[in-house]
């Protein structure tokens, strides 16, 4: 049986959309960009287009893209000012002509048959709108780190309700479903992918192909505490919005046009409790904990939501409470006994380790 991706380029009518569009956002990615692009253009599935969105690069990225475009017409290079990842991804979604859209990052490498495997799966499973995969971890020089990211393909909806089981640069989605749910949303900064997966799961089935599809590069530039906290905050809001939709209620996040500020003195009802919690969690930063006025110490913001804290939120809460315990000032209305009790409630074993370390 002849599969679509068995067709040669000469067999494909010039006016027919490609089978797959690969979206690759980049900013100042000259170091690894060529390798990422070559891994797409040498796929066993050649009926594709590669949509690269340059988000205001100031390095050699634009020149590299001009060079690649000159030798392969399947490459489409779009340039925008520094509008951010969400704007770049949505521009790619709007530009893509194929019914299937794959993602790749500018520092990762797609294995040669990655697109063919995912296309075969989606052709065989028409109800699936979101398909992920596994990844091998490599270092900045491309050497294997001897481990792989292998999300469990079973029980995906249950996992998705708690956290994202998808590795973003491995995913392939159906274009019609992606556009129907509205693409990525800027309000969920640093967690825009998780919000997108939750909304795609409302539109159809989800799956993970238990095959290594990409080489995922880990390199310098560790995630800052602030960005990690923003990612966790966005994930909490995304889950709350998803729960409302599943309950047949309107999406409470639909009115958010930008990432909420958890310091907003008048937050909306949707983000109010989460903002109250995250004002406490940011005290995991010792400097913020030292500078926080006594009136800002709101232990009830944590205790009232203790049962719903994720592992990441619990980690920040433990660090915040420990910082307050280790502080050299007295906090009116907040005793050391209450701080210690909360630290133990957040996790006795972890509390002991943190106190010994501190």
From TrEMBL:
The keyword NAD does not apply. GO terms for molecular function: glycosyltransferase activity. InterPro entries: Glyco_trans_2-like, Glycosyltransf_2, Nucleotide-diphossugar_trans. Residues 244-260 have a biased composition (Low complexity). Gene3D superfamilies: Spore Coat Polysaccharide Biosynthesis Protein SpsA, Chain A. Residues 244-269 are annotated as: Disordered. Residues 21-178 form the Glycosyltransferase 2-like domain. It holds the Pfam family Glycos_transf_2. The keyword Transferase applies. Keywords: Glycosyltransferase, Transferase. Belongs to the glycosyltransferase 2 family. This is Glycosyl transferase family 2.
């Amino acid at each position: 049986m002849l599969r679509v991706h068995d067709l040669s380029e000469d067999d494909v009518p010039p006016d027919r959309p490609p089978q797959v569009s690969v979206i690759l956002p980049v900013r100042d990615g000259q170091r690894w960009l060529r390798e990422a692009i070559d891994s797409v253009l040498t796929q066993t599935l050649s009926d594709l287009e590669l949509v690269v969105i340059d988000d205001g690069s100031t390095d050699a990225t634009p020149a590299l893209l001009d060079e690649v475009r000159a030798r392969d017409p399947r490459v489409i290079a779009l340039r925008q000012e520094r509008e951010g990842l969400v704007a770049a991804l949505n521009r790619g979604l709007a530009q893509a002509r194929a019914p299937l859209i794959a993602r790749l990052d500018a520092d990762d490498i797609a294995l040669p048959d990655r697109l063919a495997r995912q296309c075969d799966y989606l052709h065989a499973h028409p109800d699936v709108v979101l398909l992920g995969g596994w990844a091998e971890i490599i270092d900045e020089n491309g050497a294997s780190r001897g481990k792989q990211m292998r999300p469990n393909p079973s029980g995906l909806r249950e996992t998705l309700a708690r956290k994202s089981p998808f590795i973003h640069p491995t995913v392939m989605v159906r274009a019609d479903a992606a556009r129907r749910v509205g693409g990525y949303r800027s309000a969920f900064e640093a967690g825009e992918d998780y919000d997108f997966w939750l909304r795609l799961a409302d539109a159809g089935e989800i799956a993970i192909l238990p095959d290594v599809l990409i080489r995922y590069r880990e390199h310098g530039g560790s995630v800052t505490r602030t960005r990690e906290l923003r990612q966790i905050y966005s994930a909490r809001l995304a889950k709350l919005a998803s729960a409302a939709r599943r309950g047949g209620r309107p999406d409470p996040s639909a009115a958010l046009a930008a990432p909420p500020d958890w310091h907003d003195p008048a937050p909306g009802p949707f983000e109010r409790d989460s903002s109250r919690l995250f004002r406490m969690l940011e005290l995991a930063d010792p400097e913020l904990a030292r500078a926080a006025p006594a009136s800002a110490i709101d232990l009830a913001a944590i205790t009232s939501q203790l049962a719903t804290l994720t592992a990441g939120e619990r980690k920040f809460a433990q660090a915040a409470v420990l910082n307050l315990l280790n502080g050299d000032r007295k906090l009116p209305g907040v005793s050391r006994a209450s701080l210690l009790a909360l630290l133990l409630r957040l996790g006795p074993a972890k509390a002991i380790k943190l106190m010994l370390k501190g």
